[in-house]
Design goal:
The complex is a heterodimer of chains A (about 325) and B (about 290). Chain A has about 325 residues and is an all-alpha fold. Chain A has helices at about 1-10, 20-45, 55-60, 65-75, 80-95, 110-145, 150-155, 155-160, 165-180, 190-195, 200-225, 230-235, 240-260, 265-280, 285-290, 295-325. Chain B starts with a helix and ends with a helix.
């Protein structure tokens, strides 16, 4: 009981000038809303960045004028820019849609919802794997500070910096699927088979996150190891192993979660690429089908959904970290 | 006024050239990274004299050969020598990496200095822009812009001009806003120096070392992005040799000829390690 109280107090140090909690919450909410508005505007103008005529890009250079007119009407490009924008915004806010897919004919929202579960599952699995492995490696590095293992773990970020994630995926396929035959080479199974076939891709995505996670976790653990409450625990004769697993790791896993939240955007992008390597039918493969068919409504939908998901996750992370550690509220 | 301005100089982090070289020679990470990079650049520049074969010379009768004394790393599916292609690809990829980094670097440093130095609405506007960009997963936005702006080298330059400046802007903004609160900027203002002069002559030399350290890491990430676009078929277009397309070309044969995909990736990792070592080394040199 006593130690838990100490843990609590070490996480919440009194801040010198505490901003009123509600004001801070409202400000953070406002900023997130503002970013969402900017994201919507950016995605709307995305299609207009295309050099040349998007309709001709879809139908080809030699399409008949009638077909071009029809497609122009279907995409709503015959309206004024302002009308197009209000239509885009109302369509998104009332139905969560960005228009019908040009190749599939169905709403791009339905297409995205249909493919999202696999991608989300992949991101969640990768996050779990990344957290577990990073905690273990960081604990080893921190408890063997300046030892051989510590040095080996510390040079990981330098080595992994220039590692293309899809190439790492291919290496894992060569080792675990081709030679060891532990996993299928690609594709997604059904039910438990799906979970099983996602293990190797999830490890690949996790590997891209582990080095940076380990680096900051190691620093975090070293800091906690020197905190007063750990010294007290040690003085009380509690075995080092118990202190490490029960107190230090628990205290340092929160920052790891935060860092992972910050990296979630990068991880989602990596997942889209990895789906191509392992032939997984998620958002990534939908994106590439849409890209190769110039399916602009679907591309816009994917960009919008991904960006808004990132904004929401970062907002939640900011909330949690602000709640756990009031000092972060004063940073911006 | 000039000699008073000169009195501000010793505060600058930029040190004299001689001491930089002396410190660099005593920093193993920097030395090691520089040597690795020098070897790579040497091979890329003198590729025509070093490679045994023409990288685009087809020989279908000699396709998919394993490594031998004739072809050190074997041949690809079209009978082209893998070793020659690897070195020629270094030429393309390094060139595109450096060229694609120039504009984002300059743009990002100046935008970051403006945000940090002026603060207020300039800062808010720039922060909102970077927050919007960051909301998109990096590879999502890179893939979409590269596709929209057309494949090939030109598309890569446009893509990184649009998204590459953000890293620098964020780092330099933070640094500049801490400098703004320090005395020497206040004294420079009191001397009646214009904002432009303070930014160019006093702020810039102080933020530049940090920007260069970020540049090294970012170049490695940019190279990975270029290679990824090549792999996805929206980067450097064949037949120009590129590590990314080489990995893609080798993928159908990974069950038997794994080195076709593994070797080009190893070249990317080698470059990444070299850049990362140089970055770490520079950080060491300038911190001391």
């Amino acid at each position: 009981m006593q130690t838990n109280k100490m843990l609590g107090s070490s996480a919440k140090q009194p801040a010198a000038n505490i901003i009123l909690p509600y004001k801070w919450l409202v400000l953070a909410l406002l900023r997130a809303a503002l970013v969402v508005i900017c994201v919507i505007v950016a995605v709307f103008f995305l299609i207009r960045l295309v050099p040349g005529d998007p309709v001709k890009m879809i139908l080809g250079e030699y399409a008949s004028p009638e077909a071009i007119e029809k497609m122009r009407h279907q995409l709503g490009l015959d309206l004024s820019l302002w009308e197009q924008f209000t239509r885009f915004v109302t369509n998104f806010f009332t139905r969560g849609d960005t228009g019908s897919s040009i190749i599939f004919g169905t709403s791009s929202r339905d297409l995205i919802i249909d493919r999202a579960p696999v991608t989300l599952l992949l991101v969640v699995m990768a996050s779990l794997i990344a957290i577990v492995f990073s905690l273990v490696l960081a604990a080893i590095a921190a408890t063997h500070k300046d030892g051989l293992l510590d040095h080996l773990i510390r040079i990981l970020p330098s080595i992994s910096l220039g590692m293309p994630i899809f190439w790492v995926g291919l290496l894992l396929i060569i080792i675990f699927s081709v030679y060891l035959k532990w996993f299928p080479v690609g594709g997604t199974g059904e039910g438990w088979g799906m979970l099983y076939s996602l293990i190797l891709p999830a490890i690949t995505v996790a590997l891209s996150q582990i080095p940076s996670l380990v680096r900051s976790l190691r620093a975090q653990i070293l800091e906690v190891l020197e905190a007063d409450f750990v010294v007290t625990l040690r003085a009380a004769g509690i075995p080092p192993r118990v202190i490490l697993f029960k107190h230090v790791l628990r205290n340092s896993s929160i920052p790891a979660l935060m860092l992972l939240g910050v990296n979630v955007a990068y991880m989602m992008g990596g997942t889209l690429v990895i789906e191509q390597v392992f032939d997984i039918r998620g958002i990534g493969s939908l994106l590439f089908t849409a890209i190769s068919n110039r399916d602009f409504p679907v591309i816009q939908g994917i960009a919008l959904y991904c960006a808004i998901a990132v904004v929401i996750i970062s907002f939640l992370i900011e909330m949690i970290s602000g709640y756990l550690d009031p000092r972060t509220k004063r940073e911006r | 006024m000039n000699h008073m301005e000169a009195a501000l100089q010793p505060l600058h982090a930029g040190t004299k050239k001689n001491s930089f070289i002396r410190k660099a020679l005593r920093t193993p990470t920097f030395l090691c990274g520089s040597i690795m990079m020098a070897i790579l650049v040497f091979m890329a520049v003198f590729a025509p004299y070093l490679t045994p074969y023409d990288p685009s010379q087809l020989d279908l009768s000699a396709a998919l050969q394993p490594p031998s004394s004739e072809h050190w790393l074997g041949t690809d599916q079209l009978g082209r020598d893998l070793f020659s292609r690897l070195i020629y690809a270094a030429r393309t990829d390094l060139k595109v990496m450096v060229l694609a980094e120039i504009i984002p670097f300059i743009l990002g440093v100046f935008i970051g200095m403006a945000a940090g130095y002026f603060g207020k609405w300039v800062n808010s506007l720039i922060m909102l822009t970077t927050d919007t960009f960051i909301a998109f997963p990096f590879y999502l936005i890179v893939i979409i812009i590269a596709f929209v702006s057309g494949t090939g080298e030109q598309g890569i330059y446009i893509t990184f001009m649009l998204v590459g400046w953000i890293v620098y802007a964020r780092v330099i903004r933070g640094l500049s806003s801490t400098f703004r609160k320090q005395e020497w900027i206040a004294s420079a203002k009191m001397l009646g120096l214009s904002d432009v002069r303070i930014i160019l002559k006093h702020l810039l030399p102080n933020v530049l070392p940090q920007a260069v350290i970020v540049l090294m890491t970012d170049m490695a990430l940019l190279l990975v992005a270029i290679v990824t676009l090549g792999y996805l078929g929206i980067g450097i277009a064949p037949p120009t040799p590129d590590w990314g397309t080489m990995i893609f070309d080798g993928q159908p044969f990974i069950t038997t000829k794994w080195w076709l995909s593994a070797m080009p990736g190893l070249a990317v990792v080698y470059t990444g390690i070299a850049l990362s070592l140089i970055g770490d080394g520079l950080a060491d040199i300038w911190r001391r």
